[in-house]
Amino acid sequence: MITVFVLLSYGRRSSLNEETVTETPSDLFDTELPDKEISVLIEGTILPGKGMLDALTAVEGISLEQAFEISESLKYDVDFRFIVAGERFVVEMHPEHNTIKSFSYMPDPVTTHRLFRNIDGSLEYELIEIPTEKRYRYVEGEISTTLNRALNEREIEPSVAATVCGILECIINFRSDARKGDKFTVLLEERYHNGDKLRGARVLFASYDGVRTGRRVAYYFSDTDKNSAYNAHYTKSGEALIVTALRYPVDRVHVTSPFGYRIHPVTRRRSFHNGVDYRGSIGDPVYAVASGVVIDTGYDNISGNRITIEHPDKTRTAYYHLNRIRVRRGQRVIARQRIGDIGRTGRVTGPHLHFGVMDPKGNWINPMNRRMIATKRLEGEKYARFLVQMDEIDELLSSHIRKERLFANGNINNPGSSLIISSLNGISY
Ligand SMILES: [Zn+2]
What we know:
Number of helices: 6
CATH class of the largest domain: Alpha Beta
CATH architecture of the largest domain: Roll
Bound molecules: zinc ion
Shape: globular
Structural class: alpha+beta
CATH topology of the largest domain: Nuclear Transport Factor 2, Chain: A
Helix content: 10-25%
Number of strands: 27
C-alpha cells in the first residue's frame, strides 16, 4: 500500500509556499486513509493575537466557508482562551472535491484535537492524548530584589512565575511588607513526554515566610471538572486568594469566542466582539459577577433576553441570549446571585452566555483582563475535598523537602532529579 501525500506548507498569505512530496506520511493520517487515495495536507500556524478562524482564513487553499466549518465545529471542545501563537494545525483536503477530510490542531506534542468527516457529513471531534508523566518540582528561594526575579533565577518559566506572583500578591502586600531575606517556596506539577518537559506547570502550593508577613500559604484546589470555575488557589481555610475579584458568571469556564475583532458566526462579517462567549447548556445558571442594581432587562433580536447590572463603581455588566431572566429592573443583587439561565435567544448559532463589561466611561472592556473567581470561600463538599487535597500536597512537599535537604547538605549534584537545589547558605541570587 503506497499513499502519496502532497504536503503544502503555508504561513501567511503573502509568504512563499513550499511544496514537498513526502513518501512517509505523518503518522496522524496514515492509518485513516483508504488505499491509493491522495490527500492534500495544508499546514498552518496560529498568528500572534489572532484566533483559530483568523489563522485558518490566512491559509491559502482554505475558503472562508471551510474556515468557519472548522472553527464552529471545534469551539465546543477547544477553549479558545488557550490558543497561542505558533501552535500548529493541519487541514487534510480532498483534492478533487476540494472538501475538508480532517483537521488536526496540536497545541503541544502530546495533544491533538482532531475533526474528521462523519458519515452524516458533519465534522466530528476526537481528542488524541499521549500519556504524560507527572513530575513534581520543589523550589525554594530568598527575596533579594523582586519575587519575579527570584523566580526567574530559579528557572521558572514566565507564565508560571506570573501565577506564583499572582497568588502571593493576594496574601502579601509586597510594597509595604516584603523584606530582603524573606523566603518563599513553590511546589510545581510538571508534565513530561519522552523526557521533555511540556510547556507550563500547575502551581500546587506556594508559601511566603517574612519578618513582617509571618508565614502565608496557598494550595491549589482541583475540582472534578477541569473547566470548573472553582479550580483556583485558596488559603488553608478555603478563602479564595483573589478576594477583590469578580465572580464568574457561570460554573464551567469554556470560552468559545473571546473579546476583540472576529468574523461573526452568523453574519460572517468582520465585527468587534465586545464581550466573551461562555459555552453552556440551556438552563445552566447565570450569576451576577458583583453586587449591584439591575438597570435593564428585556428582549431584542440581537441580544435575545438580556440583563444589565450597574455596580457601585459605575461599571456595568451585560448578560445576553438568556433562556430565562430571574430578576426585575431596579432589583439589588449580590455577587454570585443567580440572575438567569443560559439560552439561545437572539442572534446566535447555539446556546451560550455572552458576557460583557462596560467601564464607567461607557467603553466595553475585555472581561478576561479582570480577575475572576467562583467563590470567596470553598464550602461544604468542595471544602471537604480541598482538605483531602491539602493533605496530599503536604505529603508531596515533605518528601521533596527531605530529598532537597539531603542533596543540599551532601552537596550532591543530581542531574536526573527534577528538583532544583536551592542555595540554603544565604548566598545572594
Ligand atoms: Zn458574544
